[in-house]
């Protein structure tokens, strides 16, 4: 449904509710954005071979990209509330496209840091998971957890699509072909956002999906977007629960995007595994990530979010501690078991974390607060992206990084049980 399609009826009627169209367009956009997020792990070895740059130099650009991806998120969330989702996302896509195209001209490590680290990092951060959270909170009352899970899984779906393809492109046609492909994909999504994405249900005469008959339009954040983002941080930072969410999501980012997402292919390569095979395994993680994240969204609508997070983090910690002993030059059964179970757990943490963010500061500021919590996620990912490379140079492998990340995940599994202890499951669910 286009933005100009109006309805005189505020009810959902018997037709497909437009909330599902908004979710579908968001899903497509997030699938495409996964290509930009997948590229760093694919390009590490090709850039080493092409320029002779060290892994630490390349990982610095990846680390900055991941950090800015997170730091941009809360301001992007505030901008979406203050202006429009459409304008913010279209600008972000144009920024990513420009940054990716310009990398084909780079000759120095600082060019990579500037273009892939800063430009692409800011662009991708502006349409990060806060985009999914904003659309979900505006368009859905019922099925909110399920939709968040499905939109979060879009990144895994994109990973599944892009990782083997980008790895093959890099091997057969060089790293520049990867940059050109990413730039083109970003540019092609812009018309879809312009034509098809409606901002809010009330703009087209509808209520959110599952809204009651007495639903009223919520008060949106007004005023300066940057000030709103800072105010949300100031308000949240006074609460212990905010820091528990921030800290545990820091560990989440450290143990997923930063470590496995960035270094799984090089780690497998260190054990003699081919890059395309390793990329296919990472993409396979994405297959099970889709299943696990959607299932997590479904469970978040029915089970206490704190109990879910306890199980997710504990399971992830054990998996990471086992990983160094099951990486081989070929794919073994134990490696596939890790891929399956780690994939199911990859971003299953997102739906219950968004639910708890709403519980901490309420629905009005919940999305912006999640933006700041997501910043913690990306700071953790940034630390792991650079830190794992440094530890690999020092010790010759990634084992220490996997053990450290696994231990921290176990700590996180205990910490989440103390979030919003004064609120019952029903109170959290109905916010």
Features:
431 residues; mainly alpha; Growth Hormone, Chain: A; 15 helices; 76% helix; 0% strand; disordered N terminus
Layout: helices, strands, pairs:
Elements: H1 18-51, H2 55-82, H3 85-102, H4 109-125, H5 129-139, H6 144-173, H7 175-196, H8 225-237, H9 240-270, H10 275-300, H11 305-322, H12 333-345, H13 350-395, H14 399-415, H15 425-429
Helix pairs in contact: 1-2, 1-5, 1-6, 1-7, 1-9, 2-3, 2-4, 2-5, 2-8, 2-13, 3-4, 3-7, 5-6, 5-13, 6-7, 6-10, 6-13, 8-13, 9-10, 9-13, 9-14, 10-12, 10-13, 11-12, 11-13, 11-14
Explain this structure.
This protein has 431 residues and is mainly alpha-helical. It has one domain: Growth Hormone, Chain: A. Helix 2 packs across helix 8, helix 5 packs antiparallel against helix 6 and helix 11 runs antiparallel to helix 14. The protein is globular and about 60 Å long. The N terminus is likely disordered.
- Molecular shape: globular
Strand content: under 5%
Low-confidence stretches: 1-13
Query: Any idea what the CATH superfamily is called?
Result: MFS general substrate transporter like domains
CATH architecture identity: Up-down Bundle
Rg, Å, rounded: 21 Å
Order of helices and strands: HHHHHHHHHHHHHHH
* CATH topology assignment: Growth Hormone, Chain: A
Instruction: Report the helical percentage.
Output: over 70%
Report a brief summary of the structure:
The protein has 431 residues and is mainly α. It has a single domain (18-208, 223-429), classed as MFS general substrate transporter like domains (Growth Hormone, Chain: A). Helix content is 76%, strand content 0%.
């Amino acid at each position: 449904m286009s933005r100009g399609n109006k309805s005189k009826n505020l009810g959902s009627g018997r037709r497909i509710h437009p909330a599902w169209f908004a979710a579908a367009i968001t899903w497509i956009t997030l699938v495409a954005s996964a290509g930009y997020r997948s590229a760093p792990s694919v390009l590490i070895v090709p850039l080493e071979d092409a320029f002779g740059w060290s892994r630490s130099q390349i990982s610095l650009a990846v680390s900055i990209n991941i950090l800015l991806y997170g730091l941009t998120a809360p301001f992007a969330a505030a901008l979406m509330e203050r202006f429009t989702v459409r304008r913010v996302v279209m600008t972000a896509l144009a920024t990513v496209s420009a940054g990716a195209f310009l990398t084909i001209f780079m000759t120095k490590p600082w060019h990579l840091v500037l273009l892939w680290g800063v430009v692409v990092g800011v662009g991708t951060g502006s349409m990060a998971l806060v985009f999914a959270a904003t659309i979900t909170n505006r368009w859905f009352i019922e099925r909110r957890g399920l939709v968040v899970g499905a939109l979060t899984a879009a990144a895994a779906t994109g990973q599944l699509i892009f990782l083997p393809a980008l790895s093959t492109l890099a091997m057969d046609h060089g790293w520049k072909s990867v940059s050109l492909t990413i730039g083109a994909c970003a540019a092609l999504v812009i018309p879809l956002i312009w034509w098809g994405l409606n901002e809010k249900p009330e703009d087209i005469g509808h209520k959110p999906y599952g809204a009651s008959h007495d639903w009223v339009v919520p008060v949106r954040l007004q005023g300066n977007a940057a000030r709103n983002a800072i105010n949300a941080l100031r308000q949240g930072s006074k609460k212990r629960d905010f820091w528990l969410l921030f800290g545990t999501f820091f560990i989440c980012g450290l143990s997923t995007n930063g470590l496995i997402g960035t270094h799984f292919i090089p780690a497998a390569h260190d054990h003699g595994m081919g890059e395309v095979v390793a990329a296919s395994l990472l993409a396979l993680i994405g297959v099970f990530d889709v299943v696990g994240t959607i299932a997590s969204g479904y469970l978040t609508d029915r089970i206490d979010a704190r109990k879910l997070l306890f199980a997710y983090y504990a399971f992830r910690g054990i998996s990471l501690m086992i990983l160094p002993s099951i990486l081989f030059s070929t794919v073994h059964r134990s490696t596939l078991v890790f891929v399956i179970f780690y994939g199911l757990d990859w971003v299953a943490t997102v739906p219950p974390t968004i639910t708890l963010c709403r519980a901490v500061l309420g629905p009005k500021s919940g999305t912006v607060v999640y933006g700041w919590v997501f910043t913690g996620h990306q700071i953790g990912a940034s630390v792991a992206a650079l830190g794992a490379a440094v530890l690999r140079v020092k010790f010759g492998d990634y084992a220490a990084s996997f053990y450290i990340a696994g231990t921290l995940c176990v700590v996180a599994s205990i910490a989440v049980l103390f979030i919003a202890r004064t609120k019952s499951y029903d109170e959290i669910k109905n916010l």
